[in-house]
Amino acid sequence: MTPWDTIRKELKRRDEGRRGPSFRRADDPGVEEGPRIDVRPGHDALPRDRREGAAPRRPQRQPWLARIINQWWTRLLQSVYKGSLSEQEAQYESHSTGRDYVWNTVGTSIWGMVFPVLTVVATQLAGAEEAGMFSMAFVTGTLLMIAANYGVRNFQVSDIDEDHSFSSYQINRWLTGIAAFVCGLLYCSVRGYDSHMLTICVGVYVYKLVDGVADVYEGRLQQADKLYLAGISQTLRSVAAIAGFSALLLVTRDLAVASVAMAVATAATLALVTLPLALLETEKSRRWDVGEVADLFRHCFPLFAALFLFNLIESVPKFVMEGALPYENQLFFNALYFPAQGILLAIGFVYKPQLLRLASIWSNPRKRRRFDLVVIAVMAVILGITVGVSIFMEWLGIPLMSFMYGVDFEQFGALPHLMVLAGGVTAAIDFLYAIITVLRRQGAVMRLYAVSFAASVALSLVLVNLLGLAGAVASYLGTMSLLLVLLVMEYARMRRQITRERNPFA
Predict the structure, then answer these.
(1) Other C-beta atoms within 10 Å of 366: how many?
(2) Cα distances (Å, whole numbers) of residue 13 to 21, 74, 190, 378
(3) What pLDDT score does 23 carry?
(4) pTM of the full predicted structure?
(5) What is the pLDDT of residues 401-410, one digit of tens each?
(6) Which residue ranges does the record annotate as region Disordered (predicted)?
(7) Bridge partners, 37 (sequence order)
(8) Pair (152, 206) in one structural domain
(9) 242's torsion region: left (phi>0), alpha (psi -120 to 50) or beta?
(10) How many domains would you assign to the chain?
(11) 272 & 323 share domain
């Protein structure tokens, strides 16, 4: 009998005396009964959580992100099992101004960074010419997104009394989204794109139209004073687009495959996050009505036409360049525009979360002087941000852009500063248009956009063919400046007219 057998027999005798479980040596595979123990000196015979008086081992907690995903997935499945998303009890609070600002800022910032980031990735992994093709597809896709939105977001958010049901808003948005996608395919057919460019366009169009459809659900969350949830939704969708596109392009070096991956990723976020979140966290809507849907088409047509024309005015130089210059110029123009776009996004952070409150202020005639002061204050903020961005571009922005894109932007001279100035003008136009929408006088600006569109076409055709990229930037700045002057004059006329309507003797 070996010493190990003697120890095992003694342990077995003690265990039987205590009427407890039997044990086996940790390195003895021949013994089948009882838990393994380590009988070497300095090692405890019982596991730590089995010792007498020992505290029970705490269960291991899931990582924060995994726990959130599991909770959401469980809630989603339970709601589907019960047969209705809109009849479930809301779980997230409303009237959270701090969260609204934080998440709206995060969501809008990341959404605004999608195009710049993807062009940088495309330039580094596929080259400037391919990145220019992707940029052109994105420009067209943005116009289709504007068409899908149909100018309804500001109208929806300021619909305080819910004169139109959310179901009607949904039907309206899905119809415009489908129509916009069909128009995009027709455009590609007319342009005669090859299969590679066509696939890139389809992937980008689906992504931008998912953006457009998701906007109506995020507008519903804002209408319910849960803008922070809309910001979270927008953040997830934008991150999914960047991750899907970048990962597939890194692996395949094929821009068409990466564009399709981006479309699939964003469609998944719409189905699994945005749509159910809006239905779960807001009151159940009454049934849709054909008359209400038609009413939205009628009332929002001036908004849609104005916004579409505005974005078309912005895009005219790019369309002219597509026929006159190599695709890499699309990349250069958009790269120069991205800092200017930052001004537009920054101003959106300031006023968009307050649209509902601005509508409430305007509805009280005694507070309209305060309303005018808000307008003046925001315009001053736009001027300050524009100056700040221009200083940053001169100090660090241009070298940073050269590093990111692998292109020497010093060669473009004053063009970056002209584009920043155009960005400030564009931000002022965007804000004034939102204010005119709150006044419900949006139909009056259509002729201003038509005049500016005609000027944009004329300037772009002349200057792009004469000066190339510099002509595109100059025509863009000139057209935006003309439109801003016209809008300021029209807004002043509206305010005088409204004052006279309230007090004919004023």
Answers:
(1) 7
(2) 11, 51, 92, 87
(3) 47
(4) 0.76
(5) 888 888 788 8
(6) 1-60
(7) 25
(8) yes
(9) alpha
(10) 3
(11) no
